[in-house]
Amino acid sequence: MPLTPTDDVIEVVRAPRRGPARGAYRAFGETLRGLKTTFMRVVEGPATIQYPEEKVPVYPRFRGRHRLHRFEDTGLEKCVGCSLCAAACPVDCIRVVAAENTPTNRVSAGERYAAVYEINLSRCIFCGYCEVACPFDAITMGHDYEMSDYDRSDLIFTKEMLLAEPFERTPLRAEGE
Amino acid sequence: MPLAVPLADITYAEPWWMQIIKSIVIFAIVLQLVPLVLLAERKVMGRFQNRYGPNRVGPFGLLQAIADIGKLVFKEQFRPRTSIGWLFVLAPILSIVTAIAAIALIPFGDTVDIFGTKTGLYGLDVSIGPLYLFAVGAVAFYGIMLGGWSSGSKYSFLGSMRAAAQLISYEVSQGMAIVGVIMTAQSLSLVQIVHAQGHIWYVIPQFLGFVIFLVASFAETNRPPFDLVEGESEIVGGYVTEYGGARFASYYMAEYTNIIVVSGIAVTLFLGGWHIPGVDVPGFLQPVVVLVKMLIFVNLFFWVRTTLPRLRYDQLMSFGWKVLLPLATLNALATAIVLVAID
């Protein structure tokens, strides 16, 4: 049965036809088309983002470096040292050592507080499970992604470093952007 | 006292001290263009590929070329044990000397008065302009040929063999392409050819010749799409495979000087030299006009380089001999017939 072409048959664009005149015309025309294609790239302008000077804004839910939080009114730490984040962490990069709050030394709002809170960022995979596990929203993922350092030991972030207000090094994407 | 050169008729010669000053100025200016073109190529190619190109070294990346050259010059000089020492050293020198020698004939302007001395804004105006250029170009090919052969490496050797075949076949077409111009201008002096273009640039009556000259020039300068001589995907780096450091830099400089020279020849022969239609360019602005035209023409090299992929070797050969050469011959014949018919 002969094949009758229908609408769903796509005609294949043919290679340059035989014959000197037509072949030359096709080759010349295709060359000019190629030149036009590359020239349109000049008109478009560069797509490069000049990274260290110019940064891509991050989305609000971007999972960057962790932050620990305090209550804004009392200034007490939200973390109560429950170690649920350490339990949830798939790569075991969080180390929490809890201690009792005393009336003279009151650090957190709960019964206990985190005497030691360390995150080893060289192990962290930025999965955000710690943020999900935390019952008090004490730990959240921030927006900072520029964390390279010269020494592995410098990548172990202590509680003070995580509590400190981070430098606004990464722009946040505006709503609807 | 005019300096007599016994090789060819010289239309006009200045006093000897002016010739020395002139040659220093011309080479100082044109050789400054080489690092500029080097950088411009990378930046312009970047624009053609939606990126910026080098912009880190110095303001706008202007010092990039100097940084590259500095790096190459301070590298170790080495050569393979199988190489032929003195030829290996001589070849890049030959390449660069011939490239620079061709600059001498490019006319940048007409004669002007400098310190009361009538001075031509060109190296020398001889009655054998294009012949000299072709002679120098033919020697330039020895630079590549000897470099590849004396390296003692098969890839270099293959590259130089390709260079030999490619340069010879395209030189013929290039020569035939400008025969039309020479016949129309009735002169072999490059200055006279520019003068003859006062009312119309030869790119219009000699359009076919211009296109052939353009294609052949890409092949002559080993630029893409005809850069089979250094086709790195096939023969590593061709004739420069074994070269490093300052010798490699010399080859590189020769290549870019050749681009500038070819642009200068194209501007002289086809794009009216210092003439602008409808404008009478005063004497001291003529070099500026020529240089601007040359730099615009140089950009064409970059544009084509970003656009076209490298040809297959047999395509290169059959294109040169079966398409370009017959077309160039036909062009020369047609020009001759038309000239006789008009006369």
Question: Would you write up a description of this structure?
Answer:
- The complex is a heterodimer of chains A (177) and B (343).
- Chain A is α+β, with helices and mostly antiparallel strands and 177 residues long.
- Chain A has two domains: 16-47; 66-163, Alpha-Beta Plaits.
- Chain A is built from four helices and five strands; from the N terminus they run H-E-H-E-E-H-E-E-H.
- Chain B has 343 residues and is mainly alpha-helical.
- Chain B has one domain (72-342).
- Chain B is 63% helix and 4% strand.
- In chain B, the strands form two sheets. In chain B, strands 1-4 form a two-stranded antiparallel sheet. Chain B has a two-stranded antiparallel sheet with strand order 2-3.
- The radius of gyration of chain B is 20 Å and the shape is globular.
- Classes of the chains: A alpha+beta (177), B mainly alpha (343).
Strand tally of chain A, please?
Answer: 5
Structural class of chain B: mainly alpha
* Radius of gyration from the alpha-carbon trace of chain A, in angstroms: 29 Å
How many separate helices of chain B?
Answer: 11
Helical fraction of chain A equals: 10-25%
Give a short account of the largest sheet of chain B.
Answer: 2 strands, antiparallel
**On the 0-100 scale, what is the average pLDDT of chain B?**
83
Share of helical residues of chain B: 55-70%
How much of the polypeptide of chain B forms β-strand, as a percent range? under 5%
Oligomer: heterodimer
- Give the terminus-to-terminus CA distance of chain B: 40 Å
Query: Helix- and strand-based class of chain A?
Result: alpha+beta
Number of helices of chain A: 4
Shape of chain B: globular
Could you name the ranges of chain B where pLDDT drops below 50 across 5 or more consecutive residues? Answer: none
